[in-house]
Design goal:
Distance between the termini: 78 Å
Strand content: 5-15%
Helix content: 55-70%
Radius of gyration: 38 Å
Shape: elongated
Number of strands: 6
Structural class: alpha+beta
Order of helices and strands: HHEHEHEEHEHHEHHHHH
Number of helices: 12
Length: about 375
């Protein structure tokens, strides 16, 4: 068995582990700090919405010798609006210009062909109206709302409302971090981004449900025992699924990282960045929230109930009594050390039969003399 497999088996059996629940305030603080940073980024910088949401035109040119900077300047000069240019793998350019309608698109296309010295007939132009983008945005919000409601209902039925609430908080946490990264990085928000967000919500929910299922199995009849508190059982559940969560996350992140850094960065596939960034950030945030946010929140909610408070008191009382008993036994062992035992002459084995095996000093202050001492003419052989 590999080292990772051995570690996973030991974590599952509870032989080793990290106390996630005990240090939950640290993880709460880290999550709050990241969330505040993400919110500030969205408020200050805003989101770079694509033309699918704002309307405009997308021009795809054939291979050209113009750089991205030269193409951007030319597009903004001929259109009078801000342009976003991405280099394609075949040497062409993808030019996105907002607020370009049907009337002006033909003129912009011809002037772009002159500036870039390419054939105007080979430039592909796609127009998107603002009304269509508004419909896409509304559908996205509706889908997100329906998804959240179904998640809460399912978890409340399959598990309990506390787990449903913790999972909902974790999902909002993942969404906020992903949107904040989009704002700070400046990547364009497109329908692909929305698809990526819905995908990572499903993944985050799956990872959370795996941990919750282990916690539900481990906490059956939890109030009938006095060995562990609910928080300790929750911590054992996290450790039991830790290696599985890590393996699943790494395997999922590897192809997404290739899509983002190799496909979108090195090969120039700009459109891949829209969905790849949301998947990459969302998968990492989902794995983090399942371990460090969702389960500790469930433990916090459960420890506030009267049953779990009573269980915690019983567990602590039992452990205190065990500690006191162990300390008492250690004190007794110290009293019986060899340095404190009586000398050989005062040993209990020198006591007579009538003394009941007790030391002679405890009976009469002196040990009995042998009967030969009282016989005349036969000295005992011991001089006084």
């Amino acid at each position: 068995m590999s080292r990772l497999g051995t570690l996973g088996a030991r974590l599952y059996r509870g032989e080793v582990g990290y106390d996630f629940i005990r240090h939950r305030k640290i993880w709460y603080g880290v999550s709050i700090l990241i969330t505040i940073t993400a919110i500030v980024g969205v408020v200050v910088r805003g989101l770079n919405m694509g033309i699918e949401f704002e309307g405009g035109a997308v021009f795809t040119t054939p291979k050209t010798t113009a750089s991205v900077q030269q193409t951007t300047e030319a597009a903004e000069r001929v259109s009078g609006h801000t342009a976003i240019v991405q280099a394609l793998g075949d040497g062409g350019k993808r030019i996105q210009i907002a607020q370009v309608d049907t009337k002006t698109s033909t003129k912009v296309k011809e002037e772009l062909a002159d500036e870039l010295k390419v054939d105007a007939e080979k430039i592909d132009a796609q127009l998107v109206g603002p009304s269509w983008g508004e419909q896409i945005a509304n559908k996205a919000w509706q889908g997100l709302g329906i998804f959240m409601i179904l998640v809460v209902i399912y978890l409340a039925i399959a598990f309990e409302w506390r787990m449903a609430l913790a999972a909902l908080i974790a999902l909002i946490h993942d969404l906020t971090i992903t949107v904040g990264v989009y704002s700070l990085v400046g990547f364009e928000v497109t329908p692909g981004t929305v698809i990526g967000l819905l995908t990572i919500l499903g993944y985050s929910l799956y990872d959370t449900v795996v941990v919750f299922d282990g916690l539900r199995e481990s906490s059956k009849n939890v109030t009938k025992q006095t060995k562990f508190t609910y928080s300790e059982i929750a911590n054992r559940s996290i450790n039991g699924t830790l290696v599985r969560s890590i393996n699943t996350t790494v395997v999922a992140l590897l192809p997404v990282a290739g899509l983002l850094f190799i496909g979108g960065g090195m090969l120039g596939g700009g459109m891949l960045n829209d969905i790849a960034l949301s998947l990459f950030v969302g998968l990492a945030a989902g794995a983090y929230s399942s371990i460090f946010i969702a389960t500790p929140l469930v433990a916090d909610f459960k420890e506030r109930t009267p049953q779990m408070k009573a269980l915690a008191r019983r567990v602590h009382t039992k452990r205190l009594k065990a500690a006191q008993r162990e300390a008492h036994e250690q004190d007794g062992e110290q009293d019986d050390e060899p340095g404190d035992e009586p000398d050989d002459g005062d040993d209990a084995s020198a006591a007579g039969p009538g003394d009941g095996g007790r030391p002679a000093a405890a009976v009469g202050g002196q040990r009995r003399q042998p009967s030969s001492r009282n016989r005349r003419g036969k000295p005992s052989g011991k001089r006084r």
